[in-house]
From TrEMBL:
<dbReference type="InterPro" id="IPR012337">
    <property type="entry name" value="RNaseH-like_sf"/>
</dbReference>
<protein>
    <submittedName>
        <fullName>Integrase, catalytic core domain and Ribonuclease H-like domain-containing protein</fullName>
    </submittedName>
</protein>
<dbReference type="GO" id="GO:0015074">
    <property type="term" value="P:DNA integration"/>
</dbReference>
<dbReference type="InterPro" id="IPR050951">
    <property type="entry name" value="Retrovirus_Pol_polyprotein"/>
</dbReference>
<dbReference type="InterPro" id="IPR036397">
    <property type="entry name" value="RNaseH_sf"/>
</dbReference>
<dbReference type="GO" id="GO:0003676">
    <property type="term" value="F:nucleic acid binding"/>
</dbReference>
<dbReference type="InterPro" id="IPR001584">
    <property type="entry name" value="Integrase_cat-core"/>
</dbReference>
<dbReference type="Pfam" id="PF00665">
    <property type="entry name" value="rve"/>
</dbReference>
<feature type="domain" description="Integrase catalytic">
    <location>
        <begin position="30"/>
        <end position="104"/>
    </location>
</feature>
Length: 104
């Protein structure tokens, strides 16, 4: 079964694993150290948990592709920074670069 042809997200975004987007090719080199560059995004609102969390902060390391998801109650800048400091930077260190889509 070809997952890319049956995955709704893959079909909508026209994802194919053997192709690259030429405009991005070579723009970002893969870091040589884990957590040197991370990508962050917020997903939600999702169904609220017992602890009143309805958003997920998603962090992906560019080198290893290791993903971390952290439930959030609110998505304010202050809340995100506090969460990153306590749950990511305190464990993995402060990255040189943080990429996000600026809520687009």
């Amino acid at each position: 079964m070809n997952i890319q042809l049956n995955c709704e997200t893959c079909v909508k975004t026209k994802y194919h694993p053997n192709t690259t987007n030429a405009q991005w090719k070579g723009v970002w080199n893969i870091p040589d150290i884990p957590f040197r560059r991370i990508n962050i995004d917020i997903r939600g609102p999702l169904p609220e948990t017992i602890r009143r969390k309805s958003y997920l902060l998603v962090i992906i390391d560019d080198m290893s592709k290791y993903a971390i998801t952290i439930p959030l109650e609110k998505t304010t800048g202050e809340s995100v920074v506090e969460t990153l400091n306590a749950r990511v930077f305190a464990i993995y260190g402060i990255p040189e670069t943080i990429r996000c889509d600026q809520a687009s």
